[in-house]
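Hi team,

As requested, here is the filled-out complex form for the histidyl-adenosine monophosphate run. I kept the field names the same as last time so the parser does not choke. Let me know if anything looks off before we queue the next batch.

— J.
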Amino acid sequence: MIHSVKGMRDILPPSSFAWNHVEATARRIFARFNYQEIRTPILEETALFARSVGEETDIVSKEMYTFEDRDGSSLTLRPENTASVIRSYIEHRLDQQPGLQKLYYIGPMFRRERPQKGRYRQFYQIGAEAIGSDSPAIDAEVIEMVATILQELAITGFELLINSVGTKESRQRYNEALRIELESVAPKLCSDCQRRAVTNPLRVLDCKVPEDQPIIDSLPSILDYLSDEDREHFRRVREFLDDRHIAYTVRPRLVRGLDYYARTTFEITHGALGAQNAILGGGRYDGLAESLGSKVPAPGIGFSIGEDRLVMTVEEGKAIQSPKLDLYIAPMGDPALRHCAVLAGDIRQLGVSVEVGTDRKLKRMLELANKLSARFTLIVGEDEIAAQSYALKDMVSGEQTTMTRQKLLEHFQHG
Ligand code: HAM
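And here is what came back:
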């Protein structure tokens, strides 16, 4: 038997209904904040991610699905979508459009991580990017939007963590300070951290190895290395959040595992998720567009929700069930089946969900109607067809009503 690939899974009903519910809710909230959808390809040139997410990150150094195409070019299944959105923004000169570009996306991402609960190799993100402004008001609006999506899905008990990693200059000063500090303690850290202590000290803060944590906690805080402008930007982001009564915790270690961040970074975690507790992550990436070849500055901020984790949280909160079937028609015999197929078509035109049985045994068809929780059933035999009169059974009250074809259609038209 052939199984699905490790870390990749099928999403079956009724769970797929919860997925649709989550996506429909997100789309509704995006529209309220004036975001429009962008769809980018799943394959990109490998260089795109290497240059934006960063060579030293776990994502690029260990987790990408990269392969050589037949023409020798190196392609990668997207591990995230911010880089692709910015590529598209530059390629299509979206900077020339009026106002900010507020774009959202929903789709699969690929990272070759060790699979566990809430962590997959093909996972889905619902994300948004606001490109074209460095105003702290946009940071707060983006955070407000994502909090609104969670609220709309009746998710409570989440925690918003925020930080600022400053602009390049602040980060360089911090990296230097870290490098010096790490010289003495690096030998006690894991081998990845020892390498990063030299190549990209900031990435040491992403380390998940439990034994390393006390040492990492004792390292200097990035907030002490912010320039005055960065500090003011971060103060204003918090002020805007306070105005909106959005609660948050400042987490100076939250540098996030991607190199493109500048200034604000944030994450939302949820206790019910276990080890993989980040429902979403995001941040500002001023300078990213320029590093990918944009001639004009395109400061931006965005986030990506881990949809797999979001759906898990929604499903834990309440059981979401697939929509019920409105009508089950049980035809008795072949002529009745032909008749019912046409009748079903007419009733479906009214927006009603209809299933036509094909079993030869009436009993089995009625059992199935029950299992499908059909709201109504209709048994159609030769007598009914001859008399053009149908017995509609209400499966909740048990009541049966005989009616003409016209009355039957009217019933569903108004029901
Ligand atoms: P990220 O933190 O790498 O950020 O991923 C965002 C979210 O995707 C995580 O918080 C998590 O919920 C989910 N996620 C990541 N990896 C997996 C996995 N293997 N299985 C299941 N869920 C996963 C980004 O991707 C950035 N593009 C976010 C962003 C947008 N920053 C600015 N704009």
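Two things worth flagging: The chain has 15 helices and 16 strands. The chain has a mean pLDDT of 95.

Thanks,
J.
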